[in-house]
Design brief:
heterodimer, A: mainly alpha, MetI-like fold, about 75% helix, globular, B: mainly alpha, 2 domains, two-stranded antiparallel sheet, 16 helices, 2 strands, about 70% helix
Chain lengths: ~300, ~300
């Protein structure tokens, strides 16, 4: 009896081991496939850009043909001063736009979500319904009338034209609200007894305990702003205002001679994103999946 | 004195518990009116108009009747619908399976895999689109053709014909979203009560039964969420095609999507009225599909309870 049990256990053990190796192997293969295009792009960025455009992206690990020339050029060496200045102007624009967008979006969406969570009043549910309704219409449909509106408001080719329409982001409001419903409302009454005003309570008592939600949303919306392309592409017209995605896209013309900047610049533009991602990975996943659980 | 009293009363009003919530939500109300309701209504009105730089004329249903005969538009709808359908088929079951595996004790080094799988979602579509376009290059030195060569096949012009163009588009899409969808399902799995699996174990359920009878039904809210956003993302896809074909035109419109057509008519050709009609057709299709999907999933019933 005891022997039979033991045998069964070892068989089960081997089976589990095989399954462990198989499933871990599956993920290893999957991750290799996922990482492959980026790795191939990285390797290609050490070869002349024209070669990449002419031959397509492939795997060529011949180290003798690799050099740091593209990156030297990107940072202004080898006579690349002009292109380098252009690239880092886009980089700076992207950075500035991202920071302004994120700071304003978070502050405003926090207040809105606060108003939609912490009080009981007649229009509350209706207003929240409107927030959800804005999520039901894809942005692409509103793109044309918004474009006309931005022209009429004289906001075309300006940062505000890019930022304002997306400022009250429904998903950010939704996430803040989700987080705040879990906070104790007794804190509000405690604050009132201590003589704090409604706005004082919001900023001095509730805001500090909402910090984790701020962290998640900051990371998520900065990724969105950094990579945003469609709307900025419509609003920005002058090359000195372009952000990285639009700027890199202009280098893609068939008659271009800037492919070195294109490939090295593309790879380099992923760096800040990766740094933020690996530094704050936990907040990332929290923020992203908030909608999916309670949906 | 009088003035002081007034401002005091105003202050009291502004600081009262009844007014405060409205002050908090004012930005939303403003933004909702200016950047949502107004453009939505104006796009509906524009879809019944012919808009020239000098004059705007009301043309009734003309834009819509023209759409009925517009073969490029039909092609765009076919492309977007097929793309949406295929992404649903690929980007729901597989990420779900990966999430279940990832949630089990069978996989080691989970943190590494999760991080790598998420990276594509962080890269701008400009970069990923360009990389994939170059991988699916028509020259025999491109990666996709090198793979074919390895299997002794002759190189093909991937992005210039059906169905290989679709294949490239789907590979790009799966590359970008598999990890994200897996994370959604993973967070859904985390909310399932573990004791249910223990009782299933006591009842002697096989892993297969546990999946179909416990995991799958309890994962439904997440599945409905992923399904909803995938329907929208699939139908409204534009930039992937824009980048894969380096601009908004592809041979015989094989990469044209509904939003691509809206962009072409509205931005490139400046036919705002006609493009608005395209947008509204897209909106109606998207809402209809999601309504049907939500009704079938019984989402509304649950809320009425």
């Amino acid at each position: 009896m005891a022997k039979a049990y033991k045998e069964k256990k070892t068989i089960g053990g081997t089976k589990t081991k095989v399954l462990t190796v198989l499933s871990t192997g599956l993920f290893a293969v999957l991750c290799f496939l996922i990482a492959f295009p980026l790795l191939a792009g990285l390797v290609a960025s050490f070869r002349p850009g024209t070669e990449l455009i002419r031959k397509g992206l492939n795997v060529n690990l011949d180290i003798s043909t690799m050099s740091l020339n593209n990156y030297v050029y990107l940072f202004g060496g080898n006579g690349g001063a002009e292109d380098s200045a252009k690239y880092f102007m886009w980089f700076k624009n992207s950075l500035f736009l991202t920071v302004v967008t994120v700071v304003l979006t978070l502050i405003i969406c926090y207040f809105i979500a606060y108003g939609l969570t912490m009080y009981e009043y007649k229009l509350k549910n209706f207003l929240f319904f409107l927030v959800i309704a804005t999520m039901m219409v894809p942005f692409e449909i509103l793109m044309l009338p918004l474009y006309r509106e931005i022209i009429a408001l004289k906001l075309i080719d300006s940062m505000w034209g890019v930022i304002l329409p997306g400022l009250c982001s429904a998903s950010t409001i939704f996430f803040f609200r989700q987080y705040m419903t879990g906070l104790p409302k007794e804190l509000l009454d405690a604050g009132r007894i201590d003589g704090a005003t409604e706005y004082g309570i919001c900023v001095k008592i509730m805001l500090p305990i909402t910090k984790p939600a701020f962290a998640s949303m900051a990371i998520l919306s900065s990724m969105g702003a950094w990579n945003n392309m469609l709307w900025p592409m419509l609003v920005f017209r002058s090359a000195e205002k372009f952000t990285l995605p639009i700027g890199l896209n202009t280098l893609l013309t068939p008659y271009g001679n800037n492919y070195d900047v294109l490939i090295a610049g593309s790879m380099f533009s992923i760096v800040p994103v990766l740094i933020v991602f690996f530094a704050f990975q936990k907040y990332f996943i929290d923020g992203m999946t908030a909608g999916a659980v309670k949906g | 004195m009088e003035n002081n009293k007034k401002s005091g009363a105003f202050k009291k009003f502004l600081y009262s518990q009844k007014t405060a919530p409205y002050v908090f939500v004012i930005p939303f109300i403003l933004s909702f009116c200016i950047f949502w309701i107004y453009p939505l209504i104006s796009t509906i009105i524009m879809s019944f108009q012919d808009i020239e730089p000098t004059a705007t004329t009301f043309v009734g249903l003309d834009n819509y009747t023209k759409l009925l005969k517009d073969t490029a538009f039909h092609q765009a709808i076919r492309n977007s619908a097929l793309y949406m359908f295929l992404t649903l088929v690929l980007l729901i079951p597989f990420p779900m399976l990966f999430a279940v595996l990832m949630d089990s004790r069978l996989v080691k080094a989970k943190g590494v895999w999760k991080a790598v799988l998420y990276i594509p979602a962080l890269t701008s579509v400009v970069i990923s689109g360009t990389l994939f376009r170059l991988m699916f290059s028509e020259y025999d030195t491109g990666f996709a053709n090198q793979v074919l060569e390895f299997f002794n096949q002759s190189p093909i012009k991937w992005l210039k014909m059906y169905p290989t163009s679709y294949f490239a588009l789907l590979v790009l899409c799966c590359w970008r979203w598999t990890g994200v969808n897996m994370l959604y399902f993973l967070s859904g799995l985390k909310s399932i009560d573990k004791s249910l699996y223990e009782s299933a174990d006591i009842d002697g359920a096989t892993p297969w039964q546990k999946f179909w009878l416990v995991t799958f039904p309890l994962l439904k809210p997440t599945t409905v969420y992923v399904l909803t956003i995938s329907v929208y993302a699939g139908l409204a896809m534009f930039l992937e095609s824009f980048m894969l074909w380096a601009g908004n035109s592809s041979p015989n419109n094989i990469g044209l999507t509904i939003v691509g057509y809206l962009y072409k008519r509205g931005i490139e050709k400046n036919q705002l009225g006609y493009a608005s009609a395209v947008g509204l057709v897209l909106l109606i299709i998207a809402l209809a599909i999601n309504m049907v999907q939500l009704l079938l999933n019984g989402t509304f019933k649950k809320e009425e309870r």
